[in-house]
Request: fold
Amino acid sequence: MKHQELLKQMTLEEKAAFLSGKNVWQTWEFPHLGLPSIFCSDGPHGVRKQAGAGDHLGLNASLPATCFPTAATVANSWDEDLGEAVGSALGEEAASQEVNVLLGPGLNIKRSPLCGRNFEYFSEDPYLSGKMAASYVKGIQRKGIYACPKHFAVNSQELRRMAMNSVLDERTLREIYLTGFEIAVKEGKAKSIMTSYNEINGVYANENKHLLQEILRNEWGFDGIVITDWGASNDHVKGVAAGSNLEMPSPGLDSAREILRAVENGSLTIDELDACVDELLDAVLTLTENAKKKPTGFKESEHHNLARRAAEESAVLLKNDGGILPLAPGSKVAIIGDFAVEPRYQGAGSSMVNPTYLETIEKSVEKYDLDIVGINRGYKRNGEEDAALKKEALDLAAMADIVIYCFGLDELSESEGMDRTHMRIPQNQIELLQAIVQVNSNVVGLLSAGAAIEMPWHYCCKAILHGYLSGQAGASAMLNILTGKVNPSGRLAETYPIKYEDTPAFRNFPSNQRNAEYRESVYVGYRYYDTSKVRVQYPFGYGLSYTTFEYADVHADENGVTFTLSNTGTCDGAEVAQFYVGMENGKIFRPAKELKGFKKVFLKAGESQTVTIPFDDKTFRYWNVKTNRWEVEGGTWQIMIGASVADIRLRTTVEIAGTEAVIPYNKEEMSSYYSGLVQQVEDEEFKKLLGHEIPDGKWGGELGMNDAICQMYYAKNPAARLIYKILTNLKKKSEEKGKPDLNILFIYNMPFRGIAKMTNGMVSMDMVRGMVTAVNGHFFRGMKQIISGFFKNSKENKAYTAKISRK
Reply:
């Protein structure tokens, strides 16, 4: 252990307390040992350090910081250098605000378009997610700050996220849901990682030794600290035994007492405790030393310009019929849409940033050579109809040669704490669009949304520029593209299906009662659509440019693939060349194509460049559930280079020697997986995939500590059912207002144990057990346990505080 001498000086009580947060954002400090507190802060796309009382949901104000485009946006850039630059700026701002650990980036896989937090995640593809996450991590940690990739792992939904179990086979776990984290750890050298709320095959992520010890530390060589998501600790003793170092936010000293009892009864060894403490000591001492070199501030204008560049490189031109874009100088333009006045530029929840400056289309357009005939809100973003507003918009549209229509998903549509129920844009926005096209056919749609949407209305627009959630400088970035100052180079990091019913997890998302069954296996996103030949609106990797590119002269050997890329158009621009592999008629089931490399190449008009994309250890591997290791199937592999997964420009083959491992599957028993038609996998076939029986996830009987508060619908106590009704009504009212109440959403989906983990020591686990007893119909016995537990907890907290407050 690195800090043996310091460990010897620490009492058992100090060690136990050290492994839990002191408050919402900070660790315990022990001045007599020379151990200060370190500060954690949200920051996937901007630092959110709260100036006053801390709360992890973002309800209280935070210090001004640059609001960069969200991860879902920057992933469309396919530019690792850009990701590293954004990460470096995030790290600099964190350091200047005395933040030590920045909680991000988020890189969970977009299993379904309906996950409410998809705006905060990079992609449906693990390779792209991992490469972009690693770039962020490198940039952040260059500034002496620890990055904290999250949420580890298989966290694909917001509904009951703290009380659900992800059920999946080991191959799917490894190839789809862990590969991105593997890249972030191995290539990015992440020094901390955040565990997710959910169970994985019946074991909570934060106490999962297979995840945290066997894979993260032993296989990947991770040497940093593991931090729980805020409230994600289930059993603190099991978490420490698994190698989880820091339980957040502030469970109070009841958790520390659990550690002491476990050491006393032998369920936790001193060696296990010391190992966790030693790793956290190393982080605290390292970060404290790094903080001595912290900057006193940051250049807001430079970071604002970087946010603009990130938005420019990440915007995706989806449609450009007749070359309506770029707009000609002096074009007579009407700007319609509420988002032009109040932009939709970031998501809701713990990632919400207080921007240093916020651009709007309404104000920024004054600087461009356009004849603006007027700007009108057009619709109400909460979905309400407004006939007068609509008429004004139509009158304005009729006066212009071109309409820029600013629309997309509103704040209620995508937020931490709730999943979407559909993929549609609010209907009043679409009705206005359909009315506008009747009076002016030259409509340029400017989309703002952090997740995939259905687009049956796309015929109404001659051009569609998708800015995603483009951060504080998004307005000028979009105008630069619309007017041709910038050539769009973003490419979709996720597929846009025609309708939600086409998605692979349609019948299994979100969880059915307690279990979320990943029956689609490795067929996530384009892996499903491409293999099963399902038509999509816009494929993975798609995006248009104002210039054209040609691919030629492909050659592949055992080391990689080389080809020539040429800009054959009339203006400079960047192309994202994408490398996919596949094997026809293989013995192992696999998608028709899998992304295994990419390169963003800037070329001047008429310029050509030789591009090489090397193979790596992930190019041909698959996880073999029989040998329990990575294997390679030998044979002829298809090497494909394209402008999207559906636009392959070059093909060749390469012979790869295999590892000659036993074939883990019987093709006759797993026809769905060999065909890719996985929407309706039956129980027997899913059992074959899992290698065991499907766990029973049904709710039934009495409620337990890990059941969600919203499940008090089933409570035997009428008072508990009344509380459920009140919470449900409050939730509905907040949704009707058009803005989600994150506090209500969090409580609604929180398990009972979360009450003890989130109340800064006011509530102990014994008190929560009393609450559960009362909810289950034993009111007086439960209340007795709560009341006696309150006084006992208060007394023991005071005594413990005295023990660890020595000078």
In short: The chain is about 35% helix and 15% strand.
